[in-house]
């Protein structure tokens, strides 16, 4: 039985990457050591991290005046690092279109009790159960603010921002965890981009930060580990980095380049998502909660059947057929197909075939 992994993260990795990692597991490039055993100060790892950065810069067309950091702690640690480094003595705006944006805002509110900063809720769609991207009046943004924080893809709810909002000249800081390298964004339109690796880049354990050099903090912050300037000066080697996660990330970057680069990756992703959305749209049985097609995620596609009992039945039967981790997030229910970069088109086609079969057997129940 073929297994298709729809997990929202840690997520499916390219088979070619796993095979390469398997070949390197016991002896990396005739070093006599596994990548898991390499010192972060070794020549072998120095080449790995430099190649990883060079590939990411090439794929995303990252300008020279941006630093690329490979950090730890997941994207959630960035919820604290960002205001700690960028917003002291300033306002910081939060655009909340999903659960992770809300968490980022909540962490900023918590931090504001300890440092001089002013978090502002710019807009929220929570009252609509995060089923849309909230609008706001850009003239309400203080042009002297530190940043406007957005989430480009809402993993749980299935919305995405593709056209960047007007922020009245204030730098955009973007959590791009679940659609980095899935679609093309112009890096120079952001002050900072950050992403946990475990969706489109590699295994959990490394977080990519891309930050414009002029935004690096001038004064030390609470902890050296949480200090962007220190991390940048140390070239992501202030302490022992997640060596293996960075190695896998490098292999994934190579895989995307061999595929044809980021633009080709986007073509593939839009085709996969289009197949599933088209089927859901024409079906009287299934429903996608995101009504505006321009706001639909191409990475995470939630859907439901007519009732919760059928949802549970769908998940049970899908799991038995090899469609793993198809259950929706506990906060929204239903089902969720996370079809990141490495998820194969044939898996989407197979899911649609199963959905058709399930619909035919259950449409009158």
Automatic annotation (TrEMBL):
Primary site of residence: cytoplasm
Pfam family, one: Aminotran_5
Keywords, ordered alphabetically: Amino-acid biosynthesis, Aminotransferase, Cytoplasm, Pyridoxal phosphate, Serine biosynthesis, Transferase
Keyword Protein biosynthesis part of the UniProt annotation: no
Subcellular compartments: Cytoplasm
Binding-site residues, L-glutamate: 41
Top class in the EC scheme: transferase
Gene3D superfamilies: Aspartate Aminotransferase, domain 1 (3.90.1150.10), Type I PLP-dependent aspartate aminotransferase-like (Major domain) (3.40.640.10)
Positions where N6-(pyridoxal phosphate)lysine occurs in the chain: 199
GO CC terms of this entry: cytoplasm
GO BP field: L-serine biosynthetic process
EC nos: 2.6.1.52
A GO term for molecular function: O-phospho-L-serine:2-oxoglutarate aminotransferase activity
Classification via InterPro entries: Aminotrans_V_dom (IPR000192), Aminotrans_V_PyrdxlP_BS (IPR020578), Pser_aminoTfrase (IPR022278), PyrdxlP-dep_Trfase (IPR015424), PyrdxlP-dep_Trfase_major (IPR015421), PyrdxlP-dep_Trfase_small (IPR015422)
Pathway: Amino-acid biosynthesis; L-serine biosynthesis; L-serine from 3-phospho-D-glycerate: step 2/3
Main function: Catalyzes the reversible conversion of 3-phosphohydroxypyruvate to phosphoserine and of 3-hydroxy-2-oxo-4-phosphonooxybutanoate to phosphohydroxythreonine.
Subunit structure and binding partners: Homodimer.
Protein known as: Phosphoserine aminotransferase
High-level lineage: Bacteria, Bacillati, Bacillota, Bacilli, Lactobacillales
């Amino acid at each position: 039985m073929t297994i298709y992994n729809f997990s929202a993260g840690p997520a499916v990795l390219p088979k070619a990457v796993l095979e390469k990692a398997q070949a390197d597991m016991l002896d990396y490039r005739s070093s006599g050591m596994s990548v898991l055993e390499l010192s972060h100060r070794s020549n072998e790892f120095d080449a790995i991290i430099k190649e990883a950065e060079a590939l990411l810069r090439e794929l995303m067309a990252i300008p020279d005046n941006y630093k690329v950091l490979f950090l730890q702690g997941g994207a959630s640690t960035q919820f604290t690092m960002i205001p700690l480094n960028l917003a002291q003595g300033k306002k910081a705006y939060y655009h909340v279109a999903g659960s992770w944006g809300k968490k980022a805002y909540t962490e900023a509110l918590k931090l504001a009790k300890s440092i001089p900063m002013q978090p502002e809720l710019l807009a929220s769609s929570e009252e609509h159960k995060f089923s849309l991207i909230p609008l706001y009046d850009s003239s309400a943004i203080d042009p002297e603010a530190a940043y406007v924080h957005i989430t480009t893809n809402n993993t749980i709810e299935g919305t995405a921002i593709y056209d960047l909002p007007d922020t009245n000249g204030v730098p955009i800081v973007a959590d791009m965890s679940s659609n980095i390298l899935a679609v093309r964004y112009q890096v120079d339109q952001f002050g900072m981009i950050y992403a946990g690796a475990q969706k489109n880049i590699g295994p959990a354990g490394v977080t990519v930060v891309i930050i414009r050099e002029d935004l690096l903090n001038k004064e030390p912050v609470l902890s050296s580990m949480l200090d962007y300037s220190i991390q940048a000066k140390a070239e992501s080697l202030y302490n022992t980095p997640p060596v293996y996660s960075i190695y896998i990330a490098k292999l994934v970057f190579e895989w995307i380049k061999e595929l044809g680069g980021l633009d080709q990756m986007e073509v593939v992703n839009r085709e996969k998502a289009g197949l599933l959305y088209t089927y859901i749209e024409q079906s009287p049985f299934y429903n996608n909660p995101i009504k505006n097609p321009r706001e639909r995620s191409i990475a995470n596609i939630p859907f439901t059947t007519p009732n919760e009992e059928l949802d549970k039945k769908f998940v049970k039967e899908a799991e038995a057929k090899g469609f793993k981790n198809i259950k929706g997030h506990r906060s929204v229910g239903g089902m969720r197909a996370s079809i990141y970069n490495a998820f194969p088109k044939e898996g989407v086609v197979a899911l649609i075939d199963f959905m058709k079969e399930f619909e035919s057997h259950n449409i009158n129940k």
